[in-house]
Amino acid sequence: MAELTWASAEVAIQLAANDPAWHYLRDPEPAPGSSARFVLRRERGRLELAEPAGRRRALCLDFHSADIHRRAAAGRRQPLARALGLHRTANLRIIDGTAGLGRDAAVLARLGAQVLMYERSPILAALLADALRRAPELDQNLSLQAADAREASWDSCEAVYLDPMFPATGKTAQPGREMQYLRGLLGSRDDFAILWQSAWAARPPRIVLKQGAHKQMPFLPPADFRQGGGRAVYLGFLPQSHTRRSCA
Length: 248
Description:
Layout: E1 2-6, E2 9-14, E3 29-30, E4 38-43, E5 46-50, H1 66-73, H2 79-84, E6 93-96, H3 103-110, E7 114-118, H4 122-133, E8 142-145, E9 159-162, H5 177-186, H6 192-201, E10 207-211, E11 225-229, E12 232-237, H7 239-247
Parallel strand pairs: 2-4, 6-7, 6-9, 7-8, 9-10
Antiparallel strand pairs: 1-2, 1-3, 4-5, 10-12, 11-12
Helix pairs in contact: 1-3
């Protein structure tokens, strides 16, 4: 067994030496003991993240889930697809700069988009890669780059999608099981402004930002449009039109 530390969360790696997930795990050290908060293991052929004490059901990513198929069945006129422009261009090239659990990317790929996911957490990247391995029908539409999206070639796409995970405010209800895993694994990412500036500076045709409960982002320009409502609001930005206005 080896142990990998990511964002101050120790993860014990319980994988065979030839497991393909090792491709995404960066220089783990021998485990010093049983202090790891999470365990990355393979059960019944699927990669999963679990708690050693087993208090919560393990986290395993599945691009065949009923939720993903339900959302894909809603078609290209649903708010996220419309915000990205997928209702007009079926094979749109999209960079998902904050892949996370990969659900939005999988839905967009099933709707016909060409989606490149970026994920900088090696643990999440390994889980995403395993979900992709079990969904070969998405090979032509969904791919993964295990890297920080600030390294992305933003100008290679027609739309950028960003769904930032902001620190918990302490004023909201207890998050669901999967979000608890994400927060425990990733900690509080407070550098979204840097990622935004990287994408904005490249002036892609369109950037779509999922607006969560944390709405105070003073570095954002005014949105050009919005889609959705309730708990899923997507703000749309057209950087190239901002450039033209600033030069006028």
